[in-house]
Design goal:
Blueprint: H1 5-19, H2 21-24, H3 33-41, H4 48-56, E1 78-79, H5 82-88, E2 102-107, E3 112-117, E4 128-132, E5 143-145, H6 148-160, E6 164-167, E7 171-174, H7 176-186
Antiparallel strand pairs: 1-2, 2-3, 3-4, 4-5, 6-7
């Protein structure tokens, strides 16, 4: 039986609260439901999973007095606040780094992002793509997670299997080999893991 999104999100909540408490406590309270819908719809995003995700918590704002390396519970960063993520897609602000139909969900405050594909006509609609400044952006970008659900399930499984271990002094420690195996097994459609 396929797990529903509420159950997936609850499992993610529990594991982050228990195993990355430092970051869990930095999450912002959610915006009003109408604000969430309005911000997502302004980017042509109509996805109940994203609405529920942002109704849970409104991401984590970066505190510039702390090391950016601490802001990571996914191997690519943390969930970004919705209004900040929206601002990154504004073509007038000079920071627009990716194509119009991509929306950042996770970022590490160092130039790497996981982007949601909002193009309903695309074969990869609702998949999550990696944009990496450190790799001078992968061109073409590769799908990284099969969906928002698969992203949360992957992170949860990595923590539950002790593949991810979070230390509030040094950030996220990753068993790379085991991490690759878990992510590849859950995200069977994503091209990044087929390389």
């Amino acid at each position: 039986m396929k797990e529903n999104f509420t159950s997936i999100l609850n499992n993610f909540d529990k594991v982050i609260a228990e195993k990355a408490t430092f970051l869990y406590n930095k999450h912002n309270e959610p915006l009003d439901q109408n604000q969430i819908l309005s911000l997502l719809e302004s980017h042509n995003i109509y996805d109940e999973e994203l609405v529920e995700l942002y109704s849970w918590k409104n991401g984590i704002f970066y505190n510039p007095i702390e090391y950016t390396i601490l802001y990571d519970y996914s191997a690519e960063g943390v969930i970004l606040p919705l209004e900040y993520a929206s601002s990154l897609c504004n073509p007038d602000d000079g920071y627009h780094l990716w194509k119009k139909n991509f929306f950042p969900i996770i970022g590490n405050y160092g130039g790497d992002f996981l982007l949601y594909n909002s193009d309903s006509k695309s074969k990869t609609h609702k998949m999550i793509f990696l944009y990496s400044k450190s790799a001078l952006s992968l061109n073409p970008m590769y799908s990284y997670f099969d969906s928002v659900s698969a992203m949360l399930m992957s992170i949860t499984e990595c923590f539950n299997s002790n593949v991810f271990q979070y230390n509030e002094n040094s950030g996220l420690d990753i068993n790379i080999e085991a991490w690759t195996g878990i992510i590849r097994g859950i995200n069977t459609k994503s091209t990044y893991w087929k390389q």
